[in-house]
Specification:
The complex is a heterodimer of chains A (about 325) and B (about 120). Chain A is mainly β and about 325 residues long. Chain A has 3 helices and 15 strands. With about 120 residues, chain B is mainly beta. In chain B, about 10% of the residues lie in helices and about 40% in strands. At the A-B interface, helix 2 and helix 3 of A face helix 1, strand 1, strand 7 and strand 8 of B.
Chain lengths: ~325, ~120
């Protein structure tokens, strides 16, 4: 414990650099997909949508999720995270009692493997472990653990030629993962599939436009906004024969000094995903700004400032 | 739901005492500006107060030569402002490279260009 306390104090005395920077680019944390940076983060997400009725006669359910996630950089470029979600399920037309409780606890790890400040590139590896049977049994949470190794990437387009300058504020981030359940078959004989998990976010940063490309004199709050479209999909590989589900999520991020607000529509890509459009709202706290003596530094070691540029143009 | 509202309350309370990363607010010349006459200096106004000893501005021509006078200065009346003097610049495109360390040690960098006709 004393060693940990000393490490935190030592780290706090060094120069602070968290957030997701690559060169001139700030990659904002996105709402529906994970960003590629292993930094200190804390977010709260509120999500509301409808689940489709099942082929076995289960009714459509209205679902409200409140998710909280905390990530901490432990070593330079390596972070661990923990997340929990409180779920409320309400069958439509009162065809059953409402259920609520916590979903399984999720743990995560991420390492920034390769970066290029000049080309605003980052590639990270990591994944999540969804711990089986740690949530509310009333919700029917999975009794088995699921592992999801994931590759994360981000690319800003600030290195485009000057003739394409208006496109420089664009950036793309994404995740490619495979969910692998520890238990392939349930007691009732049904199967649990390995599942391909994809997520992409295409964003246009107005702050980047104003600060690095062309100051158009846009007023606040417009100058602090990042419109984006996210896409998520989940495609079972084998065994269960379940269909692909996913969402297209147009929305907007609003950057402030210490926090970021995000709002998106959740548009189902097919009837298997949901019967109508849902909604998600997120508050991302920049805890390295809020508590700079505690966050914004790895617990052990120093951050090599990837954004540092020598005195060359 | 309580967690959601409690978190909102926490952020509001914490924000009242927080500092943050220093980002470019605006500059003279403006980001991406095209000027008919060479500027005598580059000034940048940031979103946070700066640590003077470690914050810098440099200006380079298209060949990569530093063309500023290496006299980075801060306005004592405005702690958000940092500037550097320039020589008599010939027509061309120039790149401004800034490094800003906020007083709470948060470190940010950035570049932008301006053109003199």
């Amino acid at each position: 414990m004393a060693v940990l306390a000393c490490a935190i104090l030592f780290a706090a005395s060094t120069r602070a650099q968290a957030h997701g920077f690559e060169g001139d680019r700030f990659f904002p944390p996105t709402v529906s997909t994970d960003d590629p940076f292993a930094t200190d983060e804390y977010s709260v997400t509120f999500q509301e949508f409808n689940n489709p009725s099942g082929s076995d006669g289960t009714p459509m359910t209205h679902e409200i999720d409140v998710n909280s996630e905390f990530d901490k950089e432990i070593f330079p470029k390596f972070a661990l995270g923990v997340a929990g979600t409180y779920i409320n399920l309400d069958p439509s037309n009162h065809q059953g009692p409402a259920q609520d409780g916590f979903d399984n606890v999720s743990l995560s790890a991420k390492y920034q493997l390769w970066e290029s400040a000049v080309h605003e590139w980052i590639l990270s590896i990591g994944g999540e472990v969804d711990l089986g049977d740690t949530g509310s049994k009333a919700l029917g949470v999975e009794s088995f653990t699921t592992y999801t190794p994931t590759v994360y990437f981000g690319k800003g387009f600030g290195d485009l030629p000057e003739s394409l300058a208006p496109l420089k504020p664009f950036a793309l981030t994404g995740t490619v993962g495979v969910s692998i359940p520890a238990q392939s078959q349930n007691q009732d004989g049904s199967y649990n599939s390995d599942t391909l998990q994809l997520g992409f976010a295409l964003e246009y940063s107005i702050p980047y436009l104003q600060q690095h490309v062309k100051d158009l004199g846009l007023p606040k709050p417009l100058s602090d906004m990042i419109p984006l479209v996210e896409f998520t999909s989940s495609s079972p590989f084998d065994r269960s024969g379940s269909p692909t589900t996913g969402t297209v999520c147009p929305g907007i991020l609003w950057e402030q000094a210490d926090y970021q607000l995000g709002a998106e529509a959740l548009i189902p890509i097919n009837a298997h995903t949901g019967p109508n459009v849902g909604f998600v709202f997120q508050v991302q706290f920049f805890i390295d700004d809020l508590f700079p003596k505690v966050f914004g530094h790895p617990v052990f070691g120093h951050d090599e400032d990837s954004n540092t540029r020598s005195a060359q143009p | 739901m309580k967690l959601f509202y409690v978190s909102f309350l926490l952020i509001v309370v914490a924000s009242a005492h927080a500092s943050a990363h220093a980002f470019l607010d605006y500059s003279e010349p403006a980001v991406g500006a095209t000027l008919s006459a060479p500027p005598a200096q580059v000034k940048i106004w940031f979103t946070e107060k700066l640590h003077h000893a470690t914050s810098t501005i440099q200006v380079f021509d298209a060949a990569g030569r530093e063309v500023d006078k290496k006299d980075v200065k801060f306005d004592p009346k405005n702690e958000l402002e940092m500037g550097v003097s320039l020589g008599n610049l010939p027509p061309g495109t120039y790149k401004v490279v800034w490094n800003a360390v906020a007083i709470d040690t948060h470190h940010t960098h950035g570049t932008f260009e301006f053109t003199v006709r």
